[in-house]
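re: that complex we talked abt at group meeting.

here r the seqs, copy pasted straight from the sheet so there may be weird spacing, ignore it
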Amino acid sequence: MPGTVTVQVLLDLIGIAVGAAAGALTAVRFRMHYMGCLLLGLVTGIGGALTRDVLLGAVPPAALTDWRYLTAGLAPALLVQHFHPLLSRVESAIDLADAVWLGLFSVAGALKAVHLGVPPMTGVLLGVLTGIGGGVLRDVLVNRKPVVLTQEIYVFPALLGSLVVVVASVIGWSGAAAAVPGAVLCTAVRVLAIRRGWSGPMPVRHPDPSSG
Amino acid sequence: MPGTVTVQVLLDLIGIAVGAAAGALTAVRFRMHYMGCLLLGLVTGIGGALTRDVLLGAVPPAALTDWRYLTAGLAPALLVQHFHPLLSRVESAIDLADAVWLGLFSVAGALKAVHLGVPPMTGVLLGVLTGIGGGVLRDVLVNRKPVVLTQEIYVFPALLGSLVVVVASVIGWSGAAAAVPGAVLCTAVRVLAIRRGWSGPMPVRHPDPSSG
Amino acid sequence: MPGTVTVQVLLDLIGIAVGAAAGALTAVRFRMHYMGCLLLGLVTGIGGALTRDVLLGAVPPAALTDWRYLTAGLAPALLVQHFHPLLSRVESAIDLADAVWLGLFSVAGALKAVHLGVPPMTGVLLGVLTGIGGGVLRDVLVNRKPVVLTQEIYVFPALLGSLVVVVASVIGWSGAAAAVPGAVLCTAVRVLAIRRGWSGPMPVRHPDPSSG
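got the structure back, here u go
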């Protein structure tokens, strides 16, 4: 496997790099130290893939044994720490990075799950988990509620991207060929949701306002 | 395995459904969005079983590959989001659901561990971890201290339920037959602890009150 | 394996015991109940080793199946809860325990990874993860930002300790023989960092102070 750069590996690498950049930007905003930024970047970048591989029994995870994965997880944090002032609007940069990364990881997660022969439903779920896993770990580590649970329209695009890959593979098309359109669809829906302020449905209103 | 509903699977399914309902109720109280409720319900419901299966090497976990498990983890959140106002006293409903779920998962965890041939002590510990795992994940995700660490008499009933199953299997009785009494004992002790306000022992008093 | 106390097992046991004591002290400071202290001690003690073993596929982890590991994880919490007032300066005791434990676990993690034949870079990373894993879990469970991400000079000594073991094993020396100097180096650097108030480099200054 190491040495050959397949679609799977390429998606993983770009996803990890973008996730690591997003994690490092968050660390900078939370005024963490150098090593903290590096670690938070790495955990954010490889967190989703680690979770997926542990759940699928693909251990030790490639993200820990393949130097390309580790480089993709560490290098962005080094760059971000020095050059983030150049990113004039960090907030929107984080949002965009998050959206691209959500798309890449959702399809990469679904693709790997499908390749390992799990049922389609499991492939979709692992796609979603891989997509949001790194961000959830990042948010737990900076001690805030995961944005995926509180922000609107976050899980839905990850679900769409994973579905594209899984459906393509179920109906006999190439899951790998479906990865790029799946990732683009996911990222586009996420970006549109942010720009347009789309809001997901809420649970039925609570009768007792005092519990808020 | 899929197709045959054994005691193990039945306990898992009911436990997951009750846990998912408890998680979704928590999400509603924290005013999360629809997808957030769904995800928090799922994670709370299958979290304990996922942790157990990963630690035992039973991957990919049945909770991710068996459609019955996923249905049990997702359906309650859908119902809770629409009908929770009917539950007039949400707080006590959560407490009761938590107690039933603690009982079911503790014995289910201990049972699976024993079936896989781990030492008795490990079986008890995995029973406790399975019982409290989903709730701990839920609390970490809504960014509060896990109630299992701060509320009185929570781990103790899980320990009792697991012990019943493990002891029954060690002395040659059927662990599965001991599951129902074990779960009932655990739930009963937990409910009694809540109703009677039982309080566990505290560490020796701290001499320096300023650190509180 | 059980019955023979190798360097690996001995390092693990001492590391778990010290980690469990550190976790229990934290629980006492957060005014947790008896069972909470016990659980937080156990999770802090075995958390790093659990994470390492799950990532390496060494399941079920020895920390859950070997009675010596569980004893090392549970006994210190029992002692700490009764005798912690005797530790007149709890804060500095926690810091010292943390430093010793960081050293022991970093080298133990690197050693086990190297023995299982992972690449050197992975060995170093797993050493760091094992070293800081338990503390991160502890901090997540008491709902605060992990000190490893916010305090200065924490990851760096873990990196040093792991490097000593991995380099020794790569150049053909005995990794086990390098464990003690590696652990001492790590602990010494951590203690010096605390005493001297060493501070790690920060990311480039953020131009917008309003986001802090």
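couple things i noticed - The first helix of chain A runs from residue 7 to 29. Residues 7-198 of chain A form one domain.
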